[in-house]
Automatic annotation (TrEMBL):
BP terms from Gene Ontology: carbohydrate metabolic process; UDP-N-acetylglucosamine biosynthetic process
PROSITE patterns for the chain: PGM_PMM
Keyword Phosphoprotein carried by entry: yes
Limits of the Alpha-D-phosphohexomutase C-terminal domain: 519-554
Record protein name field: Phosphoacetylglucosamine mutase
InterPro entries hit by this protein: A-D-PHexomutase_a/b/a-I (IPR005844), A-D-PHexomutase_a/b/a-I/II/III (IPR016055), A-D-PHexomutase_C (IPR005843), A-D-PHexomutase_C_sf (IPR036900), A-D-PHexomutase_CS (IPR016066), AMG1_II (IPR049023), AMG1_III (IPR049022), PAGM (IPR016657)
Residue stretches making up the Phosphoacetylglucosamine mutase AMG1 domain: 203-317, 331-458
Higher taxonomy: Eukaryota, Fungi, Dikarya, Ascomycota, Saccharomycotina
EC number: 5.4.2.3
């Protein structure tokens, strides 16, 4: 049976027709469009039934195309509790290819009341175009799903189970459908990748695999140390899925080592309303202050280390308080620079003669971090558009060792074969062990946490010494609700606006009149995960930043009135 005939047999099933009718009878308002954005579909959970239907259909196509496991992660990560979202995961753990985003967007937007035939015609057109390059005829569909702790996540997960079971009934074809339940987003990426690499079709013990792959090397790092400068690690879990997984991982960890005690904070994932509220990586980064339930005195003590994960544990932010209780934010820029510095310190200069080590950031990177990378570390730096998928791509394309981090704490390091071969040939056991701590597939808060601690332990520095490496320019990140964020179009890696007309000129003017020390920068872009536009500003003083933010807010109001 050809792929298209096969798809037609699925589309004719009663289940699909009934599902379509019930979804189309409750459409979104006329002007509202679904967009597969920065991180898949993401919005208020009550609006997500059609996007989920489209996500299941694109997963089906992707599974036919790749003939390998494809994952669906149900999460809205840092968003508030009432939101949710979906993204698909590729066989090797990457994100949906950007060339396919238009397909899933088109499927979602073609669900219209009384237009089933048009929907089918559009879907088959999309399928014909999307599958044109594949010659795969075998059709054992292989799907994996996972979800975060949100109240609505279980409902969406049940829909996926129903959807794929009904396809099985409708087509009598083989389907391997595995539900991993409540897992972090990076774990779901890891799971799909493991299934592909091992060619394993049965569910495996994720906790064991994950522990062996990333925690075991960390235990080795610690066993090589005479003593640890940290007594206790406090992890703010944002009341999300990070707590579910870390509670189990902590149990295994504490049986294996007594070095660095772990304490989990904000672990109330059973109370859905608490997710990401007054805690978590996004809260700490945006507000530049301690999350709820962190004791100030403990945060001033250099023997303690504090960090916050976000709601699905793919981002991490570290922090401390100095002797005067000033907040020291150790964000994605700081992690990228620390990792860069560590690589330079642990290798002879000649190691890099025929290799390129560089850092990828976004427009949100603090200007002083970029200067530090180029002037002090003397490394190459590239700017990418927001979204780890963009940074990951640029890191792979431009560097042999590509360190990429968004300022919000989302990132990792990728290595190519050239580097890995050279590392094998060189006698650098410490660096080899360090490299094995890194989850290259995707930014992972839990593995990033151990990567950073391993560096701090090896360099024998505490959080405050790390913070003193350079001084951030005062900065603020603010959200602004606008009537229609799709009006905001950017260019130059989102550093400048093409639309709404005239707004960029207004921002340029605001920056120029507040730029006495040539340190002022501000930009505006539409969020891909929330219904807002984001304003970023940095300048030589806190007061100047505040003036810029207030004036840009006024300019946005005027441009969208
Ligand atoms: C997601 C993306 C990140 C991005 C963030 C905010 O993070 O994975 O790459 O920085 O959204 O994006 P935006 O500014 O477009 O809303 P997460 O942790 O929410 O999945």
């Amino acid at each position: 049976m050809s792929q298209i005939t096969y798809l037609k047999s699925i589309l004719c099933s009663d289940f699909l027709r009934d599902t379509y009718d019930s979804l189309a009878s409750n459409p979104v308002t006329e002007h509202e469009k679904f967009v597969y954005g920065t991180s898949g579909f993401r919005m208020h959970n009550e609006k997500l039934d059609i996007p989920l239907f489209a996500t299941c259909l694109i997963t089906l196509l992707r599974s036919i195309y790749c003939n390998e496991f494809i994952g669906i992660m149900i999460t809205a990560s840092h968003n508030p509790p009432q939101d949710n979202g979906f993204k698909t995961v590729e066989p090797k753990g990457e994100m949906l290819p950007q060339s396919w985003e238009k397909y899933v967007t088109s499927i979602a937007n073609s669900v219209k009341k009384g237009k089933f035939d048009e929907f089918i015609a559009n879907f088959l057109n999309v399928a014909t175009e999307a599958l044109k390059e594949t010659t795969v005829e075998g059709k054992e569909l292989k799907i994996i799903i996972g979800r975060d702790t949100r109240q609505s996540s279980e409902r969406f997960s049940s829909f996926c189970t129903k959807f794929f079971n009904n396809i099985l009934t409708a087509t009598h074809e083989k389907i391997k459908f595995i539900d991993y339940g409540v897992v972090t987003t990076p774990q779901l990426h890891f799971i799909v990748r493991k299934h592909t690499i091992k060619q394993q079709t049965d569910k495996f013990d994720i906790l064991n695999e994950y522990f062996n792959e990333f925690f075991q090397p960390f235990l080795e790092v610690m066993s090589n140390l005479k003593s640890s400068r940290f007594k206790k690690l406090y992890i703010d879990c944002a009341n999300g899925v990070g707590a579910v997984q870390l509670e189990k991982l902590k149990e295994i960890y504490s049986k294996k080592t007594k070095q660095i005690e772990i304490e989990l904070i904000n672990t109330d994932y059973d109370d859905y309303s608490k997710l990401n509220v007054d805690c978590g990586a996004d809260f700490v980064k945006t507000n530049q202050r301690l999350p709820a339930n962190v004791n100030e005195t403990l945060a001033m003590d250099g023997e303690n280390l504090f960090c916050s994960l976000d709601g699905d544990a793919d981002r991490i932010i570290f922090y401390a308080l100095d002797a005067n209780a000033n907040f020291c934010l150790l964000d994605g820029d700081r992690m990228a620079t620390l990792i860069g510095e560590y690589f330079m310190e642990k290798t002879p200069k000649s190691f890099w003669n025929d290799l390129k080590l560089g850092i990828v950031q976004t427009a949100y990177a603090n200007g002083n971090s970029t200067s530090y990378i180029t002037d002090e570390l003397k490394l190459d730096v590239k700017c990418a558009k927001t979204g780890v998928k963009n940074l990951h791509h640029d890191a792979v394309e431009n560097f042999d060792v590509g360190i990429y981090f968004e300022a919000n704490g989302h990132g990792t390091v990728v290595f190519n074969d050239l580097f890995m071969n050279k590392l094998k040939e060189s006698n650098l056991p410490e660096l080899s062990l360090f490299v094995s701590l890194i989850n290259q597939a995707v930014g992972d808060a839990i593995t990033d946490m151990f990567v950073i601690i391993a560096i701090l332990l090896n360099l024998d520095i505490d959080a405050k010494t790390w913070f003193s490496k350079y001084k951030d320019l005062p900065n603020r990140l603010v959200k602004c609700v606008v009537p229609d964020r799709s009006q905001f179009e950017t260019f130059d890696y989102e550093r400048r606006l093409a639309k709404p007309a005239g707004l960029q000129d207004a921002i340029n003017h605001i920056v120029s009149v507040n730029n006495a020390l040539h340190k002022t920068r501000s930009f505006v872009r539409a969020s891909g995960t929330e219904d807002v536009v984001r304003i970023y500003a940095e300048s030589h003083s806190v007061e100047s930043v505040e003036v810029v933010v207030q004036d840009v807010l006024k300019a946005i109001k005027a441009a969208t009135a």
